[in-house]
Amino acid sequence: MSNAATWRDKAERPEGGALPRWARPxxxxxxxxxxxxxxxxxxxxxxxxxxxxxxxxxxPLADDQVLAFSGIxxxxxxxxxxxxxxxxxxxxxxxxxxxxxxxxxxxxxxLTIWGRQPVALLLAASAGRTLPVLVDGDGVAFRQGSSRDDxxxxxxxxxxxxxxxxGARLPSIYLSLFSDLRTLRQKAPALYAQLSEVRVMPESxxxxxxxxxxxxxxxxxxxxxxxxxxxxxxxxxxxxxMVVDLLSRQGVLKDIQELDFRSGDVVYKRSTxxxxxxxxxxxAPSTAxxxxxxxxxANAPVMVAGxAPSTAxxxxxxxxxxxxx
Length: 325
Description:
It contains seven helices and 14 strands. By secondary structure, it is an alpha/beta fold. It folds into three domains: 52-115, Roll (Ubiquitin-like (UB roll)), CATH 3.10.20.310; 116-220, no CATH class; 223-325, no CATH class. The longest helix is centred in the first third of the chain and has 25 residues, at 23-47. The chain is elongated and about 110 Å long.
């Protein structure tokens, strides 16, 4: 072999463990990328630190109070802040029904908070005192009623919250009652405003363990309470107002102790055995037909109303207070 051939062979073969010719540009490129990444982190990380918290809320809390409940300390980074944990901390507050936490690039967190709206008020015991407690449509007792606006909701009697903590939910059997009140307030606020008191009448002496209950409704525009099943909607209130108006025009409302809609008929209890129904007739609205019968000495039939809510037909009859319903 010639010396020229030997020289070419050495030139083409890498000496020892030397890198191939193509590897050097790759290493240079990787080194540059790493340097750029580190530089970008040191430059961008301060820019992505949370500097702004935007609070949108209908809850009576100051922004700094909301910030304290959220647990945001400052110094968190946009890409590592735990939005789900913040949401859970906010929703643990009895005043807050729902919270939404959003990250806004590069340095902002937005907190959107919906508060609980009262639909009723009931009494609870605290430190030996009886306090008014506001309850929302989910049956959650969330704060003490204090202002006049707070007290401008129906009172729930017969169901004492005891010493339950704020944020606690009432027994499940009563949740439909508060849901009905919320629906009525949203759908027919004028009819909702007619409710002054709703007395819960459990089937058993222990209200917390009761399996069923009736309701006794007191309206602001009527001196006569109405006994009904465990449902409150606009049809019940409308029908009550119609019957009360009809009995008032007949002149017998002052002698009635209680109206009872539970059977589908309108049954009313007379407050005195001597009070008699006036004779004659009164035409009920075209959607209602029926008769009222007195069981006292007068025994004079009078057209009152029929078709109590959720019934196809019905009649109204009176009973003396001494004889029961």
